[in-house]
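Hey, I'm writing a tutorial for new members on how sequence and structure tokens pair up, and I'd like a real worked example in the thread rather than a made-up one. If someone can provide the structure for the chain below, I'll link this post from the tutorial.
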Amino acid sequence: MKKTTKTRDLILSLLLAAAVCALLGWYQADTSAHSYAISIIERSAIYAVVAVAMNLLNGFTGLFSLGQAGFMAIGAYVTAVLTIPVEVRPSVYYMNGIEDWLANLSLPMIPAMVVGGLFAAAAAALIGIPVLRLKSDYLAIATLGFSEIIRALLAAPMMDRITNGSYGLNNIPGFSNIFQPILIAAVCIALMVLLINSSYGRAFKAIREDDVAAEAMGINLFRHKELSFVISSFFTGVAGGMLAVFMRSIDTKTFQVTLTYNILLIVVLGGIGSVTGSIIGSLLINGGQEWLRFLDEPLTVAGVNIPLFRPGFRMVIYSLLLMVVVLFWRRGIMGTSEFTWNGLFGLFKRKKKKKPQTGGEA
């Protein structure tokens, strides 16, 4: 029976993957007609990577960190600086110029993202030494403060010849096709899933459940917390690089605190401690904000103007829908569970209620 179920799940997974590839190929065949849908899918893939990385730290290790925007900024700026074509850099750094050692330094997109992730991981390793000794709200406040410090440093006058200061960076080469960000996101998420299912992942979960008991079992708390923090920051930095490539231009305002709150919303909505929940949450948050845009347009029915339909009404409905979801699914859509075909089929099964007997023997 188990073998039959595994075979069925494999076939269904392959069919789902083929359907997704076919849909993406259809969008790619006419990018001008489907540019809106492509942008939603690409942004969802980027946010899914950050959400899973945040879940690795918050959901699987139990560390409440709010520094994601800062690490995304590091990855984004490193990727942008290394991928902007050398011949157009003078037009980008037109105010203060660019450092001589950086003027001809260039890398392809994916290696640049990896370097950006490594820079974010290095910053996390340094920041983690003091802050990971804190717990709960204190850790959240400390990481949030460091995120703002990073953002301020990137815009500081002393960094003008590297990050272009408050002027930001533009002329960043974009993705060549829709498959590129999806593939990068899939690889990043797959690597995090492998880590979660490894012995290190089990140690992370033990720390989340009871750090005192985990330490008594021989788990080095600081070492594993630091490892989780650094790995999460690495993938967050890679996602920041993906965001820079997606947007084609960035500045420090892109990485304000609200960006971290949006990622946290995705994690909570999908389920703290669920990878597939983070992916579903990313699709719902990014797609929902765009699909409800018709609510911002004036609506006239039978010659009568509906006053509610005006700019800003979309976010009112969007917020109400989020409240409804949170009320009915307090642990998120997936909770701590992962997507399975058996679980999906279980949603459609209806338990047959036994009809009560209306008569008896005389």
